[in-house]
TrEMBL record:
Keywords: Hydrolase, Protease, Thiol protease. The keyword Metal-binding does not apply. It comes from Gekko japonicus (Schlegel's Japanese gecko). This is Calpain-5-like. The gene is LOC107122138. Residues 1-259 form the Calpain catalytic domain.
Length: 518
């Protein structure tokens, strides 16, 4: 009814296929432009695209039904929409393509709206906004662009003198180092400029400052280099800026990190662990799981607790805490995200039960506390065991969450459920634990050297009754920093806690033995 020869795709898919319509959803259109840049991504969202395409030779196959897949709260969900799209005077009013007969972007927008509002095409923004970290370096951006990780940039919607729209989201479609100067003329090294290409989701209205489409700065760049970066002068909403101008003109950048967990990847791969949980109120402190943030010292440790291990000397750990989308509750006057975040503590190497005190455990990381759907943190952690406590900012808030932890070496992320060790049959004979002792050994100084180079390879064994904790070996030092922690559930309080220090060679040879308490 809208055009001749309607298609899902015309000449394949491109980031230019999206033109924002009457909705203030630049954030969605900008993100979809990024999606269109990478086949492996959009083909997940638009499944079996060949089968879904209109086939003029088999018109009887067409059902007017389209499938899209969206990742919601850890699951890929199939959203089905019909082919009816809202129009005024025969023109699509929402997202549309430059080509009149191409409909993937309009149908995708409709499906996304259905996913969140069950058929209501008006929806609000609610994706995570990641403020640009001051340490975000050019190289970092370039590397991510190289690995084709989508970026979108957002500003605060009025047009500035320089052609940018305030309060608007743009997609970052390329990041390049551009060589300046004609190679023939400049015999020495050519100067390089770090540049970013942006796209306005309106498909028009471009930056008109330095390095914009027709600007004279480009006369300093060879034709070859211009072809290499794919410079076009069309008023298609896409333009180049220098990194410096971009930094001056934008306040926020959202980065979508593509974490490859495939064993066969040529890039770095990650081990992924997912846990789903909930903050739930209960008048019994031992059963309450809605304790609020660290400010609420009396209830903080009542939150759900998760433990994981870092098994390398140091590992980069990526953590994402996502709360359940609240937008379906909009009609009830709710629907806003809760303020959420998490804390990470380095704990005893043998901890298997929930934390009830914070005497010796060291807080090693805190996420941002913010009312976003997802809170993300990248942190470098040393070898050891860690407890991660996800919380809402205020105590007593009930909702569900999903926690994802990505590490290089499997982290064995699991929930700590027990408040104390499970009673064993032998306890009837041995007696039940009477005291819990926690110990932290910081360092050992001035050890006797054990080899010609004057070093030693010390490690600790901390034991009590039948329990034992062994520290990693510290190599080539007579002043070792351990920071090893252990927890003991003691049946016989007269039995001491024994700390032994050994040097690693063929035979274990104790330096000394000492019982710090008993
Ligand atoms: C071209 O580059 C030279 C050297 O960096 C600079 O002085 C000149 O202003 C540039 N020309 C334009 C039009 O930007
Ligand atoms: C955007 O960048 C240009 C060039 O650096 C600068 O002159 C202008 O003031 C910037 N705009 C804002 C709002 O900072
Ligand atoms: C992960 O790597 C594999 C192998 O290189 C590739 O086939 C797959 O598309 C990658 N996944 C993502 C999300 O980049």
């Amino acid at each position: 009814e809208l055009c001749e020869d309607p298609r899902l795709f015309v000449n394949g898919i491109s980031s230019h296929d999206l033109h924002q319509g009457k909705l203030g959803n630049c954030w969605f259109v900008a993100a979809c432009s990024c999606l269109a840049l990478r086949d492996s991504l959009w083909q997940k969202v638009i499944p079996k695209f060949m089968e879904q395409e209109w086939d003029p030779r088999q018109p009887e196959k067409y059902t007017g039904m389209f499938h899209f897949n969206f990742w919601c709260f850890g699951e890929w969900i199939d959203v089905v929409v019909d082919d009816r799209l809202p129009t005024v005077n025969g023109e699509l009013i929402f997202c549309h393509s430059k080509e009149r007969n191409e409909f993937w972007s309009a149908l995708l927008e409709k499906a996304y709206a259905k996913c969140y509002k069950k058929g209501d095409p008006r929806y609000s923004r609610g994706e995570g906004v990641f403020p640009m970290a001051p340490s975000l370096q050019k190289q970092d951006l370039r590397r991510r662009r190289k690995q084709q990780q989508p970026l979108t940039a957002r500003d605060f919607e009025t047009e500035t003198a320089m052609g940018l729209i305030q309060g608007h989201a743009y997609s970052v479609t390329a990041i390049r180092k551009v060589s300046l100067g004609e190679r023939l003329l400049s015999c020495s090294k050519s100067e390089k400029l770090f540049m970013i290409r942006l796209r306005n989701p309106w498909g028009k209205k471009e930056w008109n400052g330095a390095w914009s489409d027709e600007s004279e700065e480009w006369t300093n760049v060879s034709d070859k280099e211009r072809r290499k970066i794919g410079l076009t002068m069309d008023n298609d909403g896409e333009f180049w800026m220098t990194f410096e101008d971009w930094c001056k003109n934008f306040t926020d950048v959202d980065i979508c990190r593509l974490v490859n967990t495939s064993f066969f990847s040529i890039h770095k791969t990650w081990d992924k662990k997912i846990m789903c949980g909930a903050w739930r109120k209960n008048p019994d402190p031992l059963l309450n799981h809605a304790g609020g943030c660290f400010n609420n010292r009396a209830t903080f440790l009542q939150n759900p607790q998760y433990v994981f291990d870092v098994k390398k000397a140091e590992d980069k750990v990526l953590i994402s805490l996502q709360q359940k989308d609240q937008r379906i509750h909009k009609k009830e006057g709710k629907g806003e995200n809760f303020v959420i975040g998490f804390e990470i503590f380095k704990v005893e190497d043998n901890r298997e039960c929930r934390m009830h005190t914070m005497h010796i455990q060291e807080k090693v990381a805190t996420s941002a506390y913010i009312d976003m759907r997802t809170v993300f943190l990248k942190v470098l952690l040393k070898r050891g065991r860690y407890v991660l406590i996800p919380t809402t900012f205020s105590p007593g808030v009930e909702t569900e969450f999903m926690l994802r932890v990505f590490t290089d070496v499997p982290s064995k992320l699991r929930e700590l459920k027990l408040n104390k060790p499970k009673p064993e049959c032998l306890d009837m004979l041995r007696g039940f634990p009477k005291r819990v002792s926690q110990i932290r050994i910081h360092a050992a100084e001035g050890l006797e050297s054990q080899d010609q180079s004057g070093g030693a390879n010390p490690y600790l064994i901390v034991s009590c009754e039948n329990a034992k904790v062994r520290s990693p070996v510290q190599q080539g030092t007579v002043n070792a920093v351990f920071n090893t922690q252990a927890i003991f559930y003691r049946r016989n309080v007269k039995h001491p806690i024994v700390v032994q220090l050994f040097h690693t060679r063929l035979l274990r040879k104790p330096f000394f033995s000492r019982s710090p308490c008993g």
